[in-house]
Amino acid sequence: MSNELQLKSLIIQNFRGFENFQINQLGRVNLIVGKNNVGKTSLLEAILLYANRGSGVTIYDILKDRDEHRLLGSMQDDESSYEEFFALKNLFFGREDFTDSTKTIVIGEDTQKNLSLKAQWYQRQINDDDIPISTPIKFEDISSSENPFPGINLRINNGKGMIYSRIDRYNRRISRIINDSLEINCNIIYSNKIDPQQLGKWRDISLIDGLESNVIEALKIIEPDVNSINMVNYRNNDKNTRQPSSYPIPIVKLNRYDKFIPLKSLGDGINRIFALILALVNSKNGVFIIDEIENGLHYSIYPDVWKLIFKLAETLNVQVFATTHNKECLNAFNKTNKNQTAQSGRLIRLGRKKGKIVATEYNQKDMQVILERDIEVR
């Protein structure tokens, strides 16, 4: 497997607050900063959607995370069965209703290497060979069309269009019709939630792939006494919680104790770094995304965390995208990047210019000036 980056640059068109957005050069590890509500999380969502090839499950999860998977307010009776589809407008720039002026979302490296999504109305008909076909129709022709339905036209790298009409957590049809060679291994850590079931899956894979030592190395940043880690299946008998009836919990063995103890008993920070590194090593030859990387971590360990991230990203051929609001975290990133190859780390600041979201890019030399002069770029 080549060590080429999944994305050397980035264009985003008509997605969320990005009308026509561009980053000219990305690195191995990319740190994104900027004020609140400037689009940092939306940028991560775009990269996730690109890596997951427009998966209906990913679309649903992105919308649900912001309470956008259902329309707010009243709807006409004939629209109620298409509620999830109409909620898709929240992903499009301007959040316009779906008419003939509906825009196309484009996310990718350039005009040739990208993912495009367009909301469209279709009618399903049977051709002369008794084969069902779907043809696009105009919005005003819906009432007079035969078997109309709303759908998404998905194209990857300008290839043949694929249509799917249901957007929810259970729709995995799209993953079966995408060529395996186009799929990108991608994992994400959100700022405010970690799924214990996902942790168990990540840990199993890291163990099989012989990457367990990297996880132990990460835990030692906070607790040097850690010598091993495992997962045990915990059965929850409390019917008043939403926790699954059975789920895995991480346990660790410390040199000073005879028995394993729950990882959670060591505090939020070590659990955060456990999830972070597990997701990173499971993103081998792909993309790792983390929102608000500083959450739960004390500023004193930022340098060690960044050193490990840079090392694993290079060793495992992972492209990292992270956001932060924290100045100590930013400074630690800049200091760590000083000792990397010229294109390893990139700092990207999102801001607004004439109402549009724009990116200011900082290379290794720029970052050292920022660090030395204590320039505010968050």
From TrEMBL:
Organism: Herpetosiphon gulosus
AAA+ ATPase domain sequence ranges: 26-363
Protein name (Swiss-Prot/TrEMBL): DNA replication and repair protein RecF
Database matches in Pfam families: AAA_21
UniProt lineage: Bacteria, Bacillati, Chloroflexota, Chloroflexia, Herpetosiphonales
